[in-house]
Amino acid sequence: GDSVTQMEGPVTLSEEAFLTINCTYTATGYPSLFWYVQYPGEGLQLLLKATKADDKGSNKGFEATYRKETTSFHLEKGSVQVSDSAVYFCALRVGSARQLTFGSGTQLTVLP
Amino acid sequence: EADIYQTPRYLVIGTGKKITLECSQTMGHDKMYWYQQDPGMELHLIHYSYGVNSTEKGDLSSESTVSRIRTEHFPLTLESARPSHTSQYLCASSERTGRFTEAFFGQGTRLTVV
Distance (Å, rounded) from C-alpha B38 to C-alpha A83? Predict the structure, then answer.
C-alpha cells in the first residue's frame, strides 16, 4: 500500500536556523506530494505541493523538491521564525486513492 | 482561503451524552472526510463521503456515525460519549478524487469526555 515516513520529532531550532524535515514515501502509483502545516489549536493548511518528478513546491520561504529516484520530498527553509512553530505533515495521493495518505507529523518549535 | 467550518471548536461533555459535531463547507465539494487526530498527532480517517447519501467507514474503526443529506453539510454523531472518544476531530473536503487533488481542512473540534 501507500505510506509516508517522516522524520521523528520534536525538532527544536533557534530563530534564523536552517530547517530540514525529511519525508520519504512508497506508492502504488504515481503520486502527487504535499506538505501540510498545523498551527497550535488549528486544522491543517496546505503549505506546498508537487505533482511530478523534479517539481519544486514553494510557499512562505519553504521549499520541497519531488525526487522520484530517492522517493523523497524533504521540506526545507533557510531561516526559520518563531511563527513557524507548528506540526508539519507530509502526504501523498495516487490517482486511485479516495484520500491523502499522511505521515505521522513532525513537531517544530522555534525559539527566539 | 478554505471555506470549511467546524462547530463547536471545543466541547467538554459528560459520559453517556449524545453529541453532534458540525461540519459545513461552501465550496460545493463532493468529497468530505472526518479524521480523528490522536495525541501523537497522527491522523486517522474515520468516515468518508463521496456525495449526498453516500458515506462509508474509514480506515480506523469508530463508534461515531455520519450523514450527508446536503452537499455542504457532513455532521458526525456519537450516540453515547465515552472518555475513550476524547480526541481532536478534523473535517475536510476536496473537489474530486485524483492525484492532483488537495484536501481543505476545518479548524477542528477538540472533544473531551469526562
Answer: 24
- Would you place residue A9 in the very low, low, confident or very high pLDDT band (cuts 50, 70, 90)? confident
Residues of B in contact with A53 (CB under 8 A): none
Q: What mean pLDDT comes out for the span B60-78? A: 94
By CB atoms closer than 10 A (0-12, 13-18, 19+), residue B5 is: middle
CB-based burial, A56-93: b 16+ in 10 Å, e otherwise: ebeeeebbbbbeeeebbbbbebeebeeebbbbbbbbbb
| Smallest CA–CA distance from B44 into chain A, residue | A102
pLDDT of residue A95: 79
- Look at A42 and B108 and tell me if their CB atoms are within 8 Å: yes
Residue A78, C-alpha cell as written in the block: 533557510
CA nearest A30 in B: which residue? Answer: B99
Find the mean pLDDT for residues A18-26.
97
Cβ neighbours of A10 in B, within 8 Å: none
